[in-house]
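Researcher: Here's the sequence for the chain we discussed earlier.
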Amino acid sequence: MFNKIETQEKMYDALFHDHETMDIYFEDVMTDPAGKCDDLMAFLNLPPQVLQCDLLPPMPALFGMIKNYDRLHKYFKE
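Model: Thanks. This is the structure I predict for it:
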């Protein structure tokens, strides 16, 4: 799965190589939604706004919940 995602990331990096991009990770948004929305609005050169999403509650970062997160990530990335 990580290989497929990495392939897609490379494809989109190539497509947008002449443009500024911002990486957004689900775990980061879930642990700090307001902060990440502020970052996104600044990246888009838009005035700060309070954005609300009631679909999912904030969650702790996976790397903080899973003791062997780094090892699992490395294993599935290879």
